[in-house]
Structures are given as structure tokens and as C-alpha cells.
Amino acid sequence: MKKTMGLISLALLMSGCSNTSANDEKLLVSAASSLTDVLKEMELQFHEIEPNIELTFNYGSSSKLRSQIEQGAPADLFLSASETDMELLESQQLINIDSVEPFAENQLVLASLEEFPETTDFQELVLNTEEKIAIGEPDSVPLGAYSKKALENENLWNSLSARLIYAKDARQVVTYVESGNAELGIIYSSDAVISREISGTLEVPGQTDPIIYPGAVVADSANQPAATAFLEFVTSSKGQAILKEYGFMSPAGETP
User: Fold this and answer.
1) What pLDDT sits at residue 256?
2) Using CA atoms, how far apart are residues 233 and 60, in angstroms rounded to an integer?
3) Predicted TM-score of the model (pTM)
4) Mind listing the pLDDT tens digit for each residue in 137-165?
5) So what's the pLDDT on residue 252?
6) Are the beta carbons of 220 and 95 closer than 8 angstroms?
7) In this structure, are residues 147 and 136 in contact, taking their beta carbons and an 8 Å threshold?
8) Under 8 Å CB-to-CB from 143, ≥6 apart: which residues?
9) How far apart are CA 60 and CA 73, in angstroms?
10) Residue 255: predicted pLDDT
């Protein structure tokens, strides 16, 4: 019942958030929370090319957004921070398989308000302190799953588990660090680049697989041409340049 009411509220929100003319196309983009800032810039520049396409964004963890699409919530385009969530939608034929396109990569860093000495060793730092470490919820947030896997690969998960505090999405992990609710946090490097408060970053060891962001048009979308147009903009040279400006890497693992 709670989920149903949430979806109804989301649908009402999206149906009532525009006062544009009848000729405008309204495109609803469900996007990973780590894309919040870069998509604001994308929206401005895309509107110069397609002034009649109005963008509305629904941000959250990729797994939450995937669940909303599975339950029939309105969405035209899905920009995910998780290949796994995209593959689950693909297996249910809820997105257009031919439209799936990786558009960015990211990596994990340990973040702090204070700078780290150049010689800082990750394991020594996290093991020889009592400070809290914020991460995404491992079972429901891609950032949390990536963080847990990296810590397990370094045999640190069990040692640190009592000091971990969990966040509902990648953006909330950043907020925990910026507000001082956690002295340390494992965040995306792109979020560290745009944060005005975070001064210290340290690469997280144990990352064996690239963090790939795929996008795809939702199968039930009534605005498929507009959704395709925005996805093409995201993957274009102009879109890739904006992603670079906000700290993302190209899907090939190289800076665009």
C-alpha cells in the first residue's frame, strides 16, 4: 500500500509540474542521484537545441528507480549508475534493448573535509581510527554495493562494519560527510570534484570492475523520439564534455 501511494504521488507530481504550452513535449528522466548536478547543466544546453522538449527529473538510487519502473511509475528515460539494474529491466523487456547505451564511468574515493597527507595509506587510515564511515546501503544502493565489494576485496568489510553508517543514495553519503555527520565517506569521484566542502580524497583500493552508467529509453514511454534525442545528447561530444567537467569519465575509461 505504501509503495502504491508513493507511485500515485510521483505520478501526480509529474503531471502537475509543468505550465508550458501545448506544443511542448514533456520528458520524464529517472536518473541516479549522482547525476543531479551534471544533468542541471545538460538541461540548460539541451534546451538550446530542443527548446520544445521540457525535461523533468526524478532522482534516486538506481535500484529504487528501477523498482518504480517495474511497478509502472511514469518514466521516459532511465539513466542508471548500475548495469545490474539496467539488465534487470532489460530481462523484463521494460526498456528498449536497442537503446541501451553506456555514457559514463566513475570510481570510488574515500572523502573527508580535511586533506589527507600524501603518504596516507588507505588501510592504515581506516583501521587506525574510530571515525564513522558513510557508505550507500549495500542492498539497495549501487554505490553501497560497489563500496562493500571493494572493502571485501581488501578484507576490510568485517573490521569496519561496526563503524559504517548507511545512506539511502549516493547524494546522501556526500551530505553526511559535508555536514560532519560522518568524518569519512566512500563516494563517487565525480561527487568529490563538485563538492565545495570536501578537501580530502583517497582512492579506494579493491575496485576490480569499472562503474559504468548506462542509459535507455523506457519501453512504455509515449515520448520515445524525445527520450532518444536526449540520450543522444548525453552520449554526444557535447554531452561527454559536460560529463568531464563534472568529474565523470568516458565509458571507455578514458577522460572524454
Assistant:
1) 42
2) 22
3) 0.86
4) 999 999 999 999 999 999 999 999 999 99
5) 73
6) no
7) yes
8) 34, 61, 81, 108, 135, 136, 169, 170, 173, 186, 187, 188
9) 14
10) 46
Name residue 49's amino acid.
I
**Distance between CA atoms of residues 256 and 254, nearest Å:** 6
For 200, the grid coordinates are 580530502
What pLDDT sits at residue 24?
74
Contact (CB, 8 A) for 108 and 139: no
Would you tell me the crossing angle of helices 237-245 and 36-49 to the nearest 10 degrees? 150
With beta carbons less than 8 A apart as the criterion, state whether 213 and 70 touch: no
Lookup: cell for 59: 532522482
Residue type, 249: M
What does the DSSP assignment read for 96-145?
-GGG-EEEEEE-EEEEESSPPPTT--HHHHHHS----EEEE-TTT-HHHH
How high is the mean pLDDT in each 10-residue block of the chain (256 residues)? 47 44 80 96 96 96 96 97 97 97 97 95 94 95 96 97 95 96 97 95 94 97 96 97 96 58
The Cα–Cα gap between 106 and 108 comes to 7
Residues 153 and 208 sit within 8 Å (Cβ to Cβ): yes
CA distance 248 to 240: 9
